[in-house]
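tool_log.txt
---
The assistant was asked to compare two proteins side by side. It first ran the structure predictor on the initial sequence, then on the second. Raw inputs and outputs are pasted verbatim so the downstream comparison step can read them without reformatting.
(1)
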Amino acid sequence: MGNIGRKPTVLIPYGGRCTSNRCHDVFVYLRPETNGVEVESTLFRVVKTNPEYKGSVKLVYLANIPGDFIVKNRIVEEYYASQLYFISRGKDGFTPHMRNIFETYFHEPVEDADIISPFEALKRFGMDYNELFNLRVPLSQMLIVNGQTIKCFKGCYILNYDIPAILHKNNNKTDIAAMIFRTRLEYNKIHNLIDDMGDALKDADILHSEKPLSRIFHYSKGPFAQIRDALGHLYTPENDHVPVEELTFCSFLMENGFSTREIIGVIRNPVVRIRTKSGKVAENYLFALTANETFEGALDKFSRIDSQVITRQGPVMRLQY
């Protein structure tokens, strides 16, 4: 990682996997444009004051990750590697499944469609990254397929419109707070917790009532997302990566016969073809496929992956695995 620049400050070290092996380690990190201290205290207050959460949700990791460390180690680029791949390839990167979904939804052949990157959209429409990020179109003009967002605007199709703003907002000066809430709650209850946190942020005038909670913080929406979030944001007090084997869900997968190579391989190439219970093969995006799942449900789907769409050969971020 080098010897120059600021390093993460770990305030509550991660103590390793949940011993029951059925705990969700839900990663939460605050968006760089938020007031970190004020948001943190509001989130913690929701957990401490609500009887439903007080005994079932525990903070097991808290760290401040400096912006220059994030930039130097390309953490954001690593996280959005799939989106950046499709931006760079454009329609040429579309799989047959993606082409079929696009043409069925928009009623236009992919070969004839003007599919552009968000960076081209900035130039073509004279927008800045915030204007593109806030661009609204009718729901009928927006499609999400294999984790890629496509917006139809003025006759062209913009791929992953939000990436320029995300890259711009994560810079040398924008530190983020990262935390893990450990809970045995299932995901329907976890979503309730997040909604309650959103309501508390609105009551405190931190979040505008018309803005989505995702503008304030990100959270892991499924077991595989928990691993994905940890890869870039989970460190020891000595600034080393916490070994992937110590993550609760990763440990569960390993106990069921999978290697760390297989697990990280699917995290890095998340467009997968899975054999359905009827025997057919269907293409999907790993993190959408396993969102809201139990460990057992996510394991079942992982076990039925038939193949992957290789969108990258090597790591963008310098990981120690």
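(2)
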Amino acid sequence: MTDSHSIIRVAFQRVAPHASNIQRLREITEVIAGNSEAPEEIVARLRSIMVHEDITVRTDIRILINEIRHIVAGNKST
């Protein structure tokens, strides 16, 4: 699961039950997953999108970023 597309999709699946605005988070995830990027670039794009969103979506994005980092850290240890 080192592929960036699968990392963001798995992260989304894991955080979706906790998201306040799942539809908006899904839209953001789909846009970012459509591009081939390293996990660090995905996090940077999410952070840039975050500044234009309302507080609940920003919180959802923070949760998603944390999950991406968790997945990446797990991949490095295996």
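---
observation on (2): Residues 55-77 form the longest helix (23 residues). The two ends are 11 Å apart (CA to CA).
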